[in-house]
Amino acid sequence: MKIVVPIKQVPETNNVKMDPVTGTMVRDGVEPIINPLDLYAIEEGVLLKERIGGEVRALSMGPKKAILAIKEAIAMGCDDGILLSDRAFAGADTWATSYVLSQAIKKIGDYDLIICGERATDGDTGQVGPGIATWLDIPFATYINKIVEIRENSLVVERMVEDGYEILEIETPCLLTVVKEINYPRLPSLRRKQLARQIEIPVWGPADIEADTKNLGLKGSPTRVVKISTPQVTRNGKLLTPKNENEIEAAVDQLIEFLQGKEII
Amino acid sequence: MSYKGVWILGEQEAGNIKSVSYELLKRGRELADKLGVELTAVMLGKKMARERLQELVYRGADKVIVVEDPALEYFLPDPYVNAMEILINRHRPEILIASATSTGRTVAPALAIRCNTGLTADCTGLDIDAENGNLIQTRPAIGGNILATIRTPNHRPQMATVRPHSNKPLDPDRHRTGRIINESVDPALLKSRTKRLEFKKNEDAGSNIQDAEIVIAGGKGFKKEENFRILHEVAALLGGAVGATRDAVDLGWATYPHQVGLSGKTISPKLYMGIGISGSVQHLAGIKTSENIIAVNNDPEAQIFRVADFGIVGDLFEVLPLIKQKLQAIKKQ
Ligand SMILES: Cc1cc2nc3c(=O)[nH]c(=O)nc-3n(C[C@H](O)[C@H](O)[C@H](O)COP(=O)(O)OP(=O)(O)OC[C@H]3O[C@@H](n4cnc5c(N)ncnc54)[C@H](O)[C@@H]3O)c2cc1C
Ligand SMILES: Nc1ncnc2c1ncn2[C@@H]1O[C@H](COP(=O)(O)O)[C@@H](O)[C@H]1O
Fold first, then answer.
1. Taking CB atoms and an 8 Å limit, are B110 and A235 in contact across chains?
2. A86: which residues sit within 8 A by CB, 6+ positions away?
3. Are the C-beta atoms of residues B139 and B132 closer than 8 Å to each other?
4. What are phi and psi of A219, to 5 degrees?
5. How many domains does chain B have?
6. How far apart are CA A9 and CA A85, in angstroms?
7. Do A140 and A246 belong together in one domain?
8. B173 and B289: one domain?
9. pLDDT over 90 percentage in chain A
10. Which of A158, A209, B50, B246 qualifies as a cystine partner to A146, CB 3.0-4.6 A?
11. Is the CB of A255 less than 8 angstroms away from the CB of B294?
């Protein structure tokens, strides 16, 4: 099975700091990492390959340093990868991002399955996966927590929704976005890390993917971010620090009153 | 033909209209009134009872467009996206909002590509620019660390998904009138490349944290799995669902559908209670838009207290049994 895994490099949100004046993210000293939710997509691709054979290719659109993300994906078991990097791609929203990724996948041509993460932890939209599938006009399914069965021309998958799980049969080639429940991503092995270090990662620009330049980057994006603000995090709520049994009881009484006051109970 | 009118995409299950549809109508009503245009609710389903559709009118719609077809019984991307694309091309609304549910977040991004327009995910605020009538979309990003304001200046319809529970529906007004219009879509265009074989409903009632009005969540402070039981008991008393931190899920104290946060679910209940939870950036990302936040933690410095409306610094093993006891007493009354 030929598998493509689109992965995004994101800032490590663990310790994201916001500039209180400009309201923008302080990028200095913030390590770029593979979108944590994409690790499940990579792992699922590698697991499928180990089960039935084939190859897994990582694909990323981003700045040059996103090569590191691709190398890490290779260290986790992907066979190779491609970076889409060009000034013209910069500032893309999910519409323009999914266009570029779909053009690259068309160029790759031979594929049975595309696996995306559920969403990227920075933009947090989950729109790129369905977008790619729509550009390619292939079927897709979101929030997949299990690949149940691989059939001749289809997959049986389980999709996690609000109140349960749908069991779907989807024709291949197709695109899946996967949730954390699907597997446990492995750590890269030392041997594969060394291998990844030696692999040359091709970098493609607009011409390589025969992209229509008016669809690219900020210029090609239908949406515009016009303002960024830092939301007020502190609610300055009431904080009680009871010191003994009686005070604990009184604190819980106040909690109950709070709930009654809000008409919750 | 120019683009005009505000649309919401309603959701149904077995012909019952889901409450997120009414939440969208409230948002849509505000936008339509500011623009001075009609508000239309679109419902796709196998068979939709007239009185159920009438409820959409009572809740704010001027017009309801219904497409009935066996292929639309359950949500599947192909028939839903195709039907919506046809309706949009037929009527050209200037704004389309859907709910940021598993359905809305799946159909909307595909539809935006088909209609060659922008889409803003998981908005918590929508407004109309008084100067030019453009939709102003506000959404949290980067784990809730920032709020971004987004516009779609040159493409129509302007599309957004809206975080469920981020607003209350309007009360039904039985005097409101509106038109209910059945429209047809060529069944050949409703073919699906995905088949729904089966549905497994979550047996444990407390796991639907996204639809719940009350979520009581536990973290590593519970020390071991058995201790999580009281959380379920308190949730049952409150008629709520049980949430958990990633650490609690990873330890096997709760399953993944219960996980709240950046790599779990984003929730916006009326009440969120976090017990024995430190309040990491990743966890807070999933709860920040809750209406009321209560926290219990024995560490006064715990980050969760910064976002809490009401907090108790104390041992959860002392506090939680008392809460349970008091709730039981109230129930008995
Ligand atoms: C990429 C990424 C994604 C992540 N996604 C998520 C996510 O979606 N959701 C999520 O929750 N986390 C997520 N995390 C993990 C997150 O960083 C934290 O590790 C996690 O939220 C901590 O869980 P916790 O609060 O249960 O545990 P801890 O941080 O260990 O907190 C336990 C708390 O319990 C308190 N406590 C202990 N004993 C008692 C007692 N007897 N009475 C009262 N209080 C007590 C302690 O004071 C402490 O504050 C993610 C991390 C990363 C890197
Ligand atoms: N720049 C990118 N390069 C490669 N894949 C991406 C990129 N952006 C998003 N993706 C993929 O699309 C998924 C959803 O991203 P998003 O829609 O941005 O939340 C991610 O988990 C990735 O699999």
1. no
2. A205, A206
3. no
4. -60, -40
5. 2
6. 12
7. no
8. no
9. 86
10. A158
11. yes
Read off the pLDDT of residues A151-192 as tens digits, 9 standing for 90 and up.
999 999 999 999 999 999 999 999 999 999 999 999 999 999
- Our CA-based measurement puts residue B266 at a distance from the nearest CA of chain A, in whole angstroms, of 11
Tell me which residue has its CA closest to atom 37 in ligand 1: B221
Task: Please choose from B145, B210, B262 the residue to mutate so as to test ligand 1's pocket, defined by most ligand atoms within 8 A of CB.
Answer: B262
Residues A142-156 have a mean pLDDT of: 98
Which ligand neighbours the alpha carbon of A38 most closely? 2
Q: Residue B131: which residues within 8 A CB-CB, separation 6 or more?
A: none
Smallest-distance ligand from the CA of A4: 2
Interface A-B, measured as beta-carbon pairs within 8 A, has a size of 264
Question: Which of A134, A171, A235 minimises the CB distance to B308?
Answer: A235
User: Which ligand has the nearest atom to the CA of A180?
Assistant: 1
Same domain, A178 and A258: no
Same domain, A49 and A151: yes
Interface test with A, best of B146, B159, B209, B323 (most A CBs within 10 A): B146
Instruction: Kindly state the average pLDDT of the residues A32-54.
Output: 97
Min Cα distance B58 → chain A (Å) is 25
CATH code of the domain containing B324: 3.40.50.1220
Which residues from chain A sit within 8 angstroms of residue B118, using beta carbons?
93, 95, 221-223
Q: Which residues of A touch B282 (CB under 8 A)?
A: 13-14
Distance from Cα B23 to the centre of ligand 1, integer Å: 32
Based on the fold, state whether residues B270 and B325 are members of the same structural domain.
Answer: yes
Contact call for B312 and A252, based on CB within 8 A: yes
Model confidence pLDDT, tens digit, residues A71-83: 999 999 999 999 9
Instruction: For residue B202, name the pLDDT band (cuts at 50, 70, 90).
Output: confident
Are B218 and B247 in contact by the 8 Å Cβ rule? The answer is: no
Domain membership flag for residue A222: no
Same domain, B239 and B166: no
pLDDT of A33 > 70? The answer is yes
- Which three-class secondary structure state does DSSP give residue A125? coil
Q: How far apart are CA B305 and CA A154, in angstroms?
A: 49
Q: For residue A205, what are the CA distances in angstroms to A85, A87, A90, B3? A: 6, 9, 12, 36
Supply the pTM of this predicted model. 0.92
Query: In chain B, what percentage of residues exceed pLDDT 90?
Result: 89
Distances (CA, A) of A203 to A64, A104, B27, B44: 8, 11, 44, 44
ipTM of the complex: 0.91
φ/ψ of residue B71, rounded to 5: -70, -15
Contact A167 B196 (CB under 8 A): yes
CB distance B160 to B119 below 8 Å: yes
Q: Is residue A228 part of a domain?
A: no
Please state the rounded mean pLDDT for residues B16-31.
97
Alpha-carbon distance B271 to nearest alpha carbon in chain A (angstroms): 8
